[in-house]
Amino acid sequence: MQTADLLVRDAELIATVDDARRELPGGWVAITDGVVSALGGPGDPQPDAVRRVDGRGCLVTPGLVNTHHHLYQNLTRAYAPALSGGLFDWLVTLYPLWARLDEEAAHVSAFVGLAELALSGCTTSTDHLYVHPRGAGDLISAEVAAARELGVRFSPTRGSMSLSVKDGGLPPDSVVQDDDEVLADSQRLVQLHHDRSPTAMTRIALAPCSPFSVSPALMRRTAELAESLDVRLHTHLAETRDEDAFCLATFGRRPVDHLDDVGWMTDRTWLAHVVWPDAAEVTRLGAARVGAAHCPSSNMVLGSGLAPVAELRAVGAPVGLGVDGSASADSASLWLEARTAMLQGKLRHGAAAMSARDALEMATRGGAACLGRAGEIGQLSVGACGDLAIWSLEGVRFAGALSDPVEAWLRCGPVSARDTVVAGRFVVEDGAVLHPGLDEQLAVHRRVSQRLQAPLG
C-alpha cells in the first residue's frame, strides 16, 4: 500500500457524504498528492503515512462548500446607518462606500473572509464581486492571490452591474460598466485563472449582479459567453418581494420568467437566495437543474423570507449553502448556515423535515453540484479532492451527546473546526489559522475599513 501524505485515524465517525452516504465509526481517511487515496473502518488495513492525525472524539466531514458570498462586504460589517433597512435600502446606503474599493481592499477582504470561512470548516468558497469602480484595478485577481496565499480552493465570479440610478437601477454611476467592458474582462479572467482539472484550486464563473442592476442584453450576452467558454453562471434571483414588483414593472414578467427569457434556465446556472419562486417556478427550476445557494442567515437579517428549500431539493434542483456578505448576520460561518438551514427546515415543515444530515449534505455535496464540481469536492471518496474538516465533539458543549455524532455536530455548539485541510494541507490547525501573516492582514483590514467607512462628501 502506498505511503500517504496524511492519515486521519480513529475518528468518532467519518461522514463521507459519498454516493452511498457511508458513515465509518472509528474510521480513517488517507490523502496522497492532494486527493483522497483510501479510507475505511477500524478493521481495514491502514497505509503508512508521513503525518498521522488523531481523530479520537472527533467527527470528520468533507470540507464545507460556500456557494454565495460578497467578501468585500466584510469591510463594512455591522455598518450602523444600514442596519434597519431591507435589501434595497441596505444596498443604496452602502453602494457609495463600496465605490471606494481598490485592489488592496479586494485582497485584504478576501484574505480575512476566506480565513474566517476556513475556521468554520469551509475548504471551497465562491465569491460574487460585482462592484468594479472605475480605476479600481484588477479586483478579481487580487482576490485570487489572497486565496492562493491562504491555500483554500476558490471559485470567484466576475460580477457586473450595468444599470445605474439614471437607467432605473439601484447603483450609482461610479460602479457600473458597459456591456462590452464587462464581457471583455470576463473573458480575460477566465483565460488567466480558470483551471479545468478535477483538482483545480481556482475556477471562474460569470455573474451579472441581479435583475435590478443589469440589462437583459448583458444577461443574454453573458450566457452566450459562458456557453462558449464552458464556465458557470451565477446571479441573485427571487430574493425579495420588492424584486418581484421590480421585474413585473420593468420587464412585464416575474424573476423566473425573466431568467428563462434571457437564456439562463440551464444546469450551468446557480442562483443566490431563491426565496420567492411559486410552486410552478420551483418545478421549472428543478427540471432545468438550476442550482440554488440557500442563504438562511442573510434572508432573516434582511427580512427577505424563508426559501422553499425542501421543495427545490424534491424536484431535483441542487441546493447548496451560502454565508452571503455582510448582510449575513455579519458573520461568515458555514457551520452557522448549516445549523440555521436545519432549523428553518424544521420551522417550515415540522421537526422531521430537515435533519443534520440533510444540512450537511447541502453544505457539501449540494454546494459541489452548484459549483459544477460534483464528485470532485464535497465528499470523501477515493479520487476526490483531499479536503476535510475535523470537528471536536468533546468538552462542555457536547457533554451528554453520545448517540449520534452528526446530529450532535449541529444541535450542540456553537462549533468551529478543530482542523481544516485543503488538498491534504492544513489551513486551520487546533482551531487557529496557520498562515503567519493573518495578524498583519487584520491590521491592514482595519485601516482599509476605516477608509471605506469614512464620512461621504
UniProtKB/TrEMBL annotation:
Q: Which domain of life is it from?
A: Bacteria
Q: What CDD domains does this protein's entry cite?
A: ATZ_TRZ_like (cd01298)
Cite the entry's keywords alphabetically: Hydrolase
The segment(s) forming the Amidohydrolase-related domain are: 59-397
- One Pfam family assigned to this protein is Amidohydro_1
The UniProt entry, under Gene3D superfamilies, shows: Metal-dependent hydrolases, Urease, subunit C, domain 1
Q: Which GO terms describe its molecular function?
A: hydrolase activity, acting on carbon-nitrogen (but not peptide) bonds
The record's section on InterPro entries has: Amidohydro-rel (IPR006680), Metal-dep_hydrolase_composite (IPR011059), Metal_Hydrolase (IPR032466), MTA/SAH_deaminase (IPR050287)
Q: What is this protein called?
A: 8-oxoguanine deaminase
> Which species?
Modestobacter marinus
